[in-house]
Amino acid sequence: MTKRRLLWTVCPIYLLFWMGDAFLTSYYSLYFVNRGMSEQEQSILLAVIPLSLLIGCFVMSPFAKNPAKAIWLFRFCAVMETGLAIGYVFCDTFVSLLVLTLLISFCNGAPFTFLEGYVAPLGKKAGIPYSSIRLFGTLGYVVSLAFGYLILSRFPLSHAYFFASALTGAALAISFILPKSEESKEDEAEEESSQVSKRGLVFFIVSSVFFFGMYTTVTYVVPIYLNRLGTSDADYSLMRSVGVGVELVALLLMPFVDKFIKHKKTPLIIAVVVCAVGTGLGLFVKDPYAYGYSFFVLSGIGKGFLFGYQALFLGSLASSKYLPKALTINTGCVNVTVTLMNYGSASIYNAISFPAYFGLMAGLQLLGILFLVLIPNQKAEQPKQSA
Asked: How many structural domains comprise the chain?
C-alpha cells in the first residue's frame, strides 16, 4: 500500500463525511429553538443526543474487534445517517424530533472513532502523520460552516439537512474503494504489550470525561447564550467556521510541532488548557461577538492538538487491533458525561448566570490535566518515512 493510494481514498472520505456531519449536528440548539421547542423541551432534546450517542457507542463497540470490522460499522452508520438526515426537514413536533434525534445520535456516536481506528494504523504503516489526514475532516467543517453562513442568510435552517444527507452518502460510496487493512506480525506483538496499559487507558478515559465531556457540553450552551444576547443564526455559523479554520491551521502545523514534542500527552495537556481558557473567558467578556469569536478561536487551537494526537496517544496504550474499541469506549464515556450535563445545564446557568456557568465548566475541564499527568510518560514516535 502506497502513501498516494491511502491519501487519495481516505482524505476525501474525511472531507465529505465531516462536511455532512457539520450540516447535521452543528445547528441542533438553534434548530430546536427555531422549531418552537420550550426551554425544557430543548434541554431534553439536547440531553438525549449524548445519551443516544453513548448507547450507540457501547452497543457497537463489541463488534469493532479489528480495523476491518470497524470500517463496516462506519458504513452502517453512514447509511443510516444518509437516510435519517432528511427527516429533520419535516419534523416539527417534540415527539417526532425526539424520536429522530435518538435514531440519528445512535448512529452518529461511533463512526468517527471507527474511521480513526481503521485509518490511524494504516497511516502509521505508510509513514503518514495522522494529523495530515485528520486535517481534511477539519477542512470539511470549515467549508460546511462557511457555506452554512450563506445558507442561513438566505434560506431556512432546515435546508442544511439536504446537504448533510448528500455529503454523507458520498463519503459512504468512496469508503468501498479503501485499501484493505491487514494484520501483521507487528500488530500481534503490540497486542501483548498493550495489556500492560489498562491503567493508562482508565486514566485517559477519566481525563476525557472531565475535559472533553465538559467542553462538549459548553459547545451546546454557547449558541443559546449568544442567541439570548442578540446574535443571529448566521453570526453563529460564521463564528464557528472561523474557529474550525483555526483548527485546520493548527492541524497543518502539527508535523512541525512534532519536532518539539517529547511526550505524547503534552499536546493533550495543551488542548485542555487552551479550551478551558476559551470557556473561562465567559466570566469576563460580556460582548457576545468578542466572546463567541474568542471561544471558537481558542477551541480551534485546542481541538487541533486533541484531534492530531488523541488517536496516536491511545495507540500507545492499546494495540492497533484494539484501537477502534478503545476509541469507541472513550467516546461513549464522554457521552455519558455530556448526557448528564446537558440535562442539568439549563438549571445551572439559570441559577448562577451564564458567566458563572462558564467559569465552573472551565474549572472542571482543567481537572482533566490531573489524570493525564497520572499516565506514565510515553516518548513520541517519529513517523516512518516511506516512498
From this structure: 1
